Each structure stands twice: as structure tokens, then as C-alpha cells.
Amino acid sequence: MASIYKRGKTWTANVFVLVGGKRTRRTKSGFGTKTEANKWAVNIENQKMQNELIVQNKVFVTSFEEWYLVFKEPQLETATKQWYKRTLSLLTQKWGDRLITDISSSDFQKLINEYGDNHVKSSVSHIKNITSAFVRYAVDEDLIKKDFTRNVNTHSVVKSKDKELKFLEVDEMYRLIERVKNNEAVTSRMIYTSILSGLRFSEVAGLTAKDFNFANNTINVNKSWQIHDQKFKETKTKTSNRTISMPETYMQIAKKWKMGKEFAFESELGTPPSDNAANKQLKRLLEKDDSKIITFHGLRHTHASYLLSKDISIQYVSERLGHSDMNITLSTYAHLLDKKRSEETNKALSFLDNVN
């Protein structure tokens, strides 16, 4: 039988259940009225009668942390780990010691709404998706019966930064190449390498002298350097392991570089410069020519955009970039391809007009 009583200004309900043959108490407090407390108790009694009662009722954030440490942390990169830790911190702040069965869809929607008042939509989506992944696990493990995140919507009032794909125009690219190709700064050499190869920053940083094949004019990409972890790791995807053909002019210049014992691009600290250092150098160089300011990753977009503008096939560009799927390349550079398609349409119609 249930026990319902008033404590201060709120009501508390107790229901006794059997766990492992022992009688234990399920309690919930904070109800505004006796009717609400009684409704909760009746629901627990019904679950007990139908053998649907969750008896391993843990604190939500405790279960979330256990799940993260066992199933997620060993497989994640540092940047992704930070999102899981940020999510755990937010859940702990909002829900504290609340039990996993006491969280409802409205509770989660309120949390998402409050977080969205001060964060961009992409950040809100990270929090929602990570929490949803845990809740689906909790349902599979019979920790809860329903996925309370399923009907929750992302909410944000903070405008996201402009996500327009930023890359250099051809004349800007040429000027940058002239700036870096004979520049002895390690960051300049990294910029020069990226703009002619399309490599990600972590891939450029992970190159060693052995990865340069001067006989065949190729660079072998087989690992990446993770700045935060300060260690080599596998490339982003299996298709990121690739051998890239490089211009002979670049290879002749690179052949003269003094490379480090462990890294091709080695700073005075014995490790590659940080992405922050590379971005600062890139900005300085671009400002000298009044060129558009882009990030180091924008060099990769510049490389791909230039090749696509020269009628290089999308399949080859995708392979050169190391994308796991050509659809990624298509979606990333869709606006460029649409522009190219429009030019091709006009060209085709011009030819067809001559037939008539």
C-alpha cells in the first residue's frame, strides 16, 4: 500500500516494492497537491502489479557517467569527449540527484529551452543528441521504459555564426603561394603543403620525413597528430589513409627543407606548431595582400574549389580529400557544383542552338 503525507508545503508519496526478495521503499516528494502524489503512487502500484516496475532506479547523472566511461570515452577523440563532459556537467547542474525514472519529456524540453536561450542551435543539438543516445541505451537496458527525449525539439535564440564555405579566390590563392613557397617559417611550410594537397591540419601536422617520396612526388597520409592529446592517432576515416600526388615544383622545394627527427614540421618545442599558431601566420600573410581571411581549414576548401573549377572530376577530388563518401564532397561543395552546372547548361544550349 502507498503512504502519502505532507512535508512542509509539498506532498510526499511512498510505495513499498520487492527487490531481490527484500521489501524496499520507492519515494518521491515535491508534489504540489495530494492528488498529484496519489496519482504517482497509483501509477507505481500498477507497474508493480504488471511486473513493469523498474527496480534498479539509479541517479540519472550517475548512470550517464557510467555509460560514458564504459561505452564512449575509450573510442572518442578529445574534442568529442569535451562535448560529453559538457553534457554531463549541464545535466548534473540541472538535475543533480534526480532518479532516472523521475525525468520526463517536459523536464528535458525545459532543459533544452533554457540552454538554447544562451547557445547556438548546433550546441543545443549536441546536448540533445548525446542525452538521447544515453536514454536509448537506458531503455535497452530496462533502466527506464520510455525514451523521454524522442519528442523533444531543439530550441535556440542565439544566431549561429556564418557557415558560408570560406575559400580563397584563384588570384588570392596564387598570391598566398608566392608568399609561402620560399618562406622558412614552419607554419608557412604547413600552409604551402595544405593548399597544394588539401590535407587537414592534423594530417599535415602528423607528417614525418618518411612520408615524403621525392622519387615519385607523393606524400603518404597514414596518421594524424592530435594537438590536445599530444600523440599520433589514426586518420579521421579509413579512406583518409591515402597517397597524394604533389606538384614537382612543390616537391623540389620541400626536398630542401630541414625536417625534424619525428615530425616533418617541427617547432622549437620538438612538436608541430599548434593550429592556433598556423592560423595566426595565415592571417598575417593574407592581410599583407588584402586577401580574404580564412582559417587553415579554409585552405582545404580552397584546394578542392580550385580543382573543381578546373573541371577535375568530383570523384578524384573526393579521393584526394580522403572523404569516406563522395556524397560528403557533393554536399560540401554543392553551391560550387551548382554554379558549374549552370555554366555547363549554358554551354550545352549554345552547342545545341548551332545544330538547329
Biggest sheet strand order reads 1-2-3
C-alpha-based Rg, rounded? 29 Å
The CATH class of the largest domain, by name, is Mainly Alpha
CATH level-four homologous superfamily name of the largest domain: Intergrase catalytic core
Number of helices: 14
Number of strands: 8
Largest sheet: 3 strands, antiparallel
Q: How many domain regions?
A: 3
Spans of at least 5 consecutive residues whose pLDDT stays below 50 are none
Shape: elongated
Helix content: 40-55%
Task: Tell me what the CATH architecture of the largest domain is.
Answer: Orthogonal Bundle
Order of helices and strands: EEEHHHHHHHHEEEEEHHHHHH
Distance between the termini: 91 Å
Return the CATH topology of the largest domain. Answer: hpI Integrase, Chain A
Give the overall average pLDDT: 88
Beta-strand percent range: 5-15%
User: Which secondary-structure class do the elements indicate?
Assistant: mainly alpha
- What kind of assembly state do the chains in view correspond to? single chain
Family: Belongs to the 'phage' integrase family.
Domain Core-binding (CB): 55-139
GO molecular function, one term: DNA binding
Keywords: DNA recombination, DNA-binding
